Amino acid sequence: MTPDISDVTRAKHGRPVHHWRRDVIELAALFTAVAVADAVANVIGHGPDGTALLGISAAVLVATAGFHTWWARRHGHAPPETDTGTRPTDAAAREAGSTGESTEAPEAGATVLWRMRTTVKDEPGSLAALCTALAQRRVDILSLQTHPLAEGTVDEFLLRVPAALAASDLTHAVSRAGGRGTWIERADAHDLVDAPTRVLGLATRTALDAAELPLALRQLLGRCTIRSLPATSPTSGRAQESAPVEGALEDTVMRLRAPEGGVITVERPYLPFTPTEFARARALVELDARLGPRIPHSQDVLTLPEGNAITVRRADVSDVEAAKAMQQRCSPRTLSMRYHGPVGDADRYLNHLLSPRFGRTLAVQTASGRVVGLGHLLWDGDETEIALLVEDEWQRRGIGAELLGRLVTMAVEAGCESVYAVTQASNTGMVAAMRGLGLPLDYQIEEGTLVITARLDAAAVAASQLSHDAPCGERE
């Protein structure tokens, strides 16, 4: 952002620049002051209470001068009135904070990575002018992608910029070179991977696990909110709004047809989507639809302290009947603590909860194959929810803690910044399991329920030994 001209001292050849307008204004102010003084003198001299009014005015002036002297001595650290040195304005400080810039002097030769997107006219020489402006400021262009549009061309850059160059100066230079609608944010080493390689990697993750699709879309499109809606409402059973087969792109919102007939909505209010981004996202969704339902088939066999062997594995909609049977064996109190509503409605949510489209689910089953516990990691827009249900007979054996630790590890691997659990204060088992994570926790009461949020940090998770080094029992 260019500082306002009123915030700096304009000078020419080292001397202040004077203008005749300023002199005229000063003379007018002087004549006005003389006229006001004459009017006041006439009031005091010819009025009935002129002497008393003059004495009161003198007392007020003396009191004001004394207060000013006391205040100046007490606040002697304030800058003197004659100091004309330039200082960062509040707006500049806020801008530096919002872009992650440090107010400390950077080291000589230090550089930072920025991702920048700007729109230029679709005519010869426009991109060259932009690159020339960047080169004049010693900015290195590491990668460049162009997205032709009807009203111009969107150019997306990955830049290595001298640390001494502020983001506001960079965007100002781009604007002077013809760029408009410029957006910029800090980048990291992961952005050094070229776009085709990154897209292929995301496609591989999606092919191995259907639950990876929302995460792949988020990594492909940056900071955005992704919501998956089923074709029918899990509560009313009525059909919900669907998207066209080919999808729909509306500026900052794209709607894609989900493989099971629902709709995937992706929203990024701060930056419109380009047709190229829309095509890449639609290709990932089409790949997911062609491959069909799938989850990794890995499983771990654990031995509880009592000697019982259990298996922890991924679950999906094929486990709906087993999950319903487990819920029928659970007490009404256990179900009410899990679903926070009528116990009879519990079965309606299972298709949604077990679908890989909306998150990941872990199941705990006995040696006979009976499911006795479920743990869900659910994508809730740009937040992530954790939910547990353990059959009454198998509670207080460490199964809940085992599931919770695995779900948190999966959330860290997915790049989630936090997870939250909705429970009741009387659910001491869930509260104890969350506290047992050893992570920073926030507690909040909402409509009679307790919401516990755990802030995730890779180092903190590793320190709390959530790598499953036999927290529940021996492994086979």
TrEMBL record:
Region named Disordered: 75-109
Name the UniProt record assigns to this protein: GNAT family N-acetyltransferase
Domain ACT: 115-189
EC assignment: 2.3.1.-
Domain N-acetyltransferase: from-to ranges: 310-457
Domain of life: Bacteria
GO molecular function, one term: acyltransferase activity, transferring groups other than amino-acyl groups
Organism of this sequence: Streptomyces sp. R21
